[in-house]
Amino acid sequence: MSTQSSGSGDNRVDMIRRVLFESPQRPQSAPLEGDALQQHETIERAWKLHIMRERERRQRSLEKQFRSLHVAMTELEKTSDRLFKGASVKSRHITYPKQAKIPTDTPSTKVWDYSYKALSDAL
Amino acid sequence: MMSRRLFTTSTRSLQQQTPLKIKNSRIAASVILTRAPQITRDATPFEMAYFDYKEKQERAAASVFPQEFYFKKGTLAERRWKEQVEARNAAMNDPSLSLTDAVDQTRASEDADGAAAAAAPVVQADRITKADKENDIKKLDRALQQNLYLIVKQQNKWQFPQTDMQASEYLHEAAERHLKEACGPDMDVWFVGRQPITHYKESPSRKEDTEGLKVFFMKARIYAGQVKPSKDVSDFAWLTKKELVDYLPSEYYNSIKDSLSDL
């Protein structure tokens, strides 16, 4: 970097050095006490309770889904051996779809592709 | 002496055509076709309040931001940044205003001089679509936060697309075949494995001499396209779990409700 004799050039280099090499200052915060501490702890406990309940609700929903599946397969086994065996076979050719996407905060501008056409299997 | 039969007694070649009946119960395959949620769910008021609280807590403990490094002195960008910093500092002591809202307020007020706004407009689609406002139950861009399930009107009753199984095919084959025939092939559908996720039973009654029915439901997901109803299907709808209660008979709904996720 060409060194200019002007002050502004030195300031810029100093600033870059500072940002690169010095650890930034953090405000010194005294630990919470008394009322403020109680408020903070109550808020944190309420949040933990909230996510615990969410987690348990999700877990219960999954358990119900699994139970339905299990009961259906038991019923199928009683009904027909052939169908049960056909359902239990795990195909090595089933792959997870690439089109599956996780939910985003806003939908895409073309919200849903209504104009999808089936691929003509011309082999 | 009655010979004990478990399957239809037709020969193998005829089994291609005959619907499957075991112990006086028809076996049917059905499809629960789901459109997954496209957007994240709305935050509850408690969640929003907690996020705002955390944001302020982190700002209070954050390290000093090197403003002179990122913004050149005297530029418009620096002036805008300083306004936002002032708004954030004012919002720190105001429990009803969040930092994000404070910054949004300054952005709204400065949009009057729209020079920079026009340079790079960020177009964000609405979370509530036209289909939501019109409550069009045939559309797939309604209720983007929830799962939508396909039901069809077959023989004048609402149910998931259902077909009697032929004696030669498996459950997943029957389900895929019927979905293509009844709802058209122009849908990007993926069947989740070969196992039925739930079943519905109507027991045969010897007194009334009615045959029973056993329906096994296969799970499938749709990623694009729309239903094209055929002659079997007089009507169709894409409904959330809550709305299904009004359309499906109660016994039928109770059999399937545990296998649908809560969203």
TrEMBL record, chain A:
Single GO biological process annotation from the record: mitochondrial translation
Main location: mitochondrion
Domain of life the protein comes from: Eukaryota
InterPro entries associated with the record: Ribosomal_mL40, Ribosomal_mL40_fung
Localization of this protein: Mitochondrion
A cellular component term, taken from the record's GO annotations: mitochondrion
A molecular function (GO) term: structural constituent of ribosome
Key words, A-Z: Mitochondrion, Ribonucleoprotein, Ribosomal protein, Transit peptide
Family designation: Belongs to the mitochondrion-specific ribosomal protein mL40 family.
PANTHER family: 54S RIBOSOMAL PROTEIN L28, MITOCHONDRIAL, LARGE RIBOSOMAL SUBUNIT PROTEIN ML40
Protein name in UniProt: Large ribosomal subunit protein mL40
Organism: Hesseltinella vesiculosa
From TrEMBL, chain B:
Compartment(s) of residence: Mitochondrion
Record keywords: Mitochondrion, Ribonucleoprotein, Ribosomal protein, Transit peptide
GO CC annotations on file: mitochondrial inner membrane; mitochondrial large ribosomal subunit
Residue ranges of domain Large ribosomal subunit protein mL46 N-terminal in the record: 26-132
InterPro entries in the record: NUDIX_hydrolase-like_dom_sf, Ribosomal_mL46, Ribosomal_mL46_N, Ribosomal_mL46_NUDIX
Transmembrane residue ranges: none
SUPFAM superfamilies tied to this protein: Nudix
Predominant location category: mitochondrion
GO molecular function, one term: structural constituent of ribosome
Top-rank taxon: Eukaryota
Family statement: Belongs to the mitochondrion-specific ribosomal protein mL46 family.
Name the UniProt record assigns to this protein: Large ribosomal subunit protein mL46
Organism: Hesseltinella vesiculosa
Upper taxonomic lineage: Eukaryota, Fungi, Fungi incertae sedis, Mucoromycota, Mucoromycotina
